[in-house]
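Title: Comparing notes on inverse folding

I've been comparing how different people in this forum approach sequence design from structure. To keep things fair, I'm posting one structure and asking everyone to reply with a full sequence. Here's the target:
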């Protein structure tokens, strides 16, 4: 009986497990290990940060249930074993994964998908002073802090606008800036404040935001951000982060009331201690055209920890949710091919589609082959994409329940 062990329950790990269960024999043992009990739907994190007028029980249960999908629900009735544990080390020779609790999990095929963490790019003060944006705890803290800042401004009669500094004008930074801008408008209306309470500054180190999108798409996004009151600061490389302020490379210091860091992610450093895996200079796992880890014939990798060079662009494939899911599909099929002694499937990355929500019921969508859509319809498409994902990983009824739960809460943000 073959044993498939998946480390990490992100988009790639879950897709590998579900696809493998579908195409491998019933005797194959499939186990997914994750330190958390639920899969985080990260595309909705910006909605958590801007959640408006939600009853709180102290644990934010309503919000957590909107974006956390328990593995027991995902794997219900699918004969996939879930183990909540933290893998500390992997013995590749003996094919054993060791948990922090001292347990051993044997395998015949190993899939690594442990994900990523916030990257500070060597900028001092990021982890000490900036509000990071990677986990649900991060998003909840941003939400709570903004509400406290605005409540304090109202109590003290502060007339000068609050300044929120957001570093990183990639898709995450744009989504966060746009949604938080609307969130603050709603808070101001609720307390009956007429003047502008918050100004958002969005910092980009390069000469332009989103350098890989077309000028038309970039212009649409910039116009929307400007309309929402977001000041875009390009050519603004950060030298250091201090308490409520930033120092730029040009020695200028920008004062504010809080700093939110959305500048990017890096592979989970835990990968380095897992075992004898060759890593790139950026800490990623290089894989071959079949997504196999080099020098480990029965080990594959998916998601943010993978460095796969696209032969057409000669650049690494971006760490997108649907890209990780596609990788999971290929890995599952290659495990089947190995077991049946068939040629392996070459991974051909595709990532020429993206949808960027930019505050409220507005998004900019790039649908491939130069097709662009902006406004309400692009936002609708984004909602349908999210629903499709829920349906793909959950039993149909539960998928509708989880999607509707989040939709009902997040629609208040708009």
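Reply #1:
Here's my take.
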């Amino acid at each position: 009986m073959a044993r498939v062990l998946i480390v990490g329950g992100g988009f790639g790990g879950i897709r590998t497990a579900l696809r493998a269960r579908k195409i491998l024999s019933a005797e194959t043992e499939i186990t997914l290990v994750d330190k958390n009990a639920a899969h985080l739907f990260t595309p909705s994190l910006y909605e958590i940060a801007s959640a408006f007028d939600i009853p709180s029980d102290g644990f934010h249960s309503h919000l957590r249930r909107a974006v956390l999908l328990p593995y027991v629900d995902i794997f219900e009735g699918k004969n996939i074993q879930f183990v909540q544990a933290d893998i500390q080390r992997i013995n590749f020779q003996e094919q054993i994964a060791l948990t922090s609790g001292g347990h051993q999990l044997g395998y015949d095929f190993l899939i690594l998908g442990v994900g990523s963490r916030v990257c500070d790019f060597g900028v001092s003060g990021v982890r000490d002073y900036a509000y990071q944006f990677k986990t649900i705890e991060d998003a909840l803290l941003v939400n709570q802090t903004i509400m406290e800042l605005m409540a304090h401004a109202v109590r003290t009669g502060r007339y000068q606008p609050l300044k929120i500094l957001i570093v990183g004008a990639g898709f995450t930074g744009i989504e966060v800036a746009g949604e938080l801008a609307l969130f603050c408008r709603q808070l101001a209306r609720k307390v009956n404040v007429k003047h502008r309470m918050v100004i958002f500054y969005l910092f980009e180190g390069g000469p332009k935001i989103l350098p890989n999108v077309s000028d038309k798409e970039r212009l649409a996004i910039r116009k929307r951000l400007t309309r929402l009151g977001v000041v875009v600061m390009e050519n603004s490389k950060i030298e250091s982060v201090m308490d409520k302020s930033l120092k730029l490379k040009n020695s200028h210091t920008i004062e504010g009331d809080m700093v939110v860091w959305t500048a990017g992610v890096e592979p989970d450093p835990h990968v380095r201690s897992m075992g004898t895996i060759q890593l790139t200079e950026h800490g990623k796992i290089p894989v071959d055209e079949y997504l196999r880890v080099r020098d480990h014939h029965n080990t594959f990798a998916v998601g943010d920890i993978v460095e796969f060079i696209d032969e057409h662009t000669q650049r690494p494939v971006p760490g997108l949710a649907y890209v990780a899911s596609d990788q999971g599909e290929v890995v599952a099929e290659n495990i089947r091919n190995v077991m049946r002694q068939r040629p392996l499937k070459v991974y051909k990355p595709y990532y020429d589609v993206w949808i960027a929500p930019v505050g409220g019921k507005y998004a900019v969508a790039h649908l491939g082959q130069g097709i662009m859509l902006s406004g309400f319809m692009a936002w609708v498409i984004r909602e349908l994409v999210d629903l499709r994902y829920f349906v793909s990983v959950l039993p149909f009824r539960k998928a509708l329940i989880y999607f509707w739960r989040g939709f009902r809460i997040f629609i208040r943000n708009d």
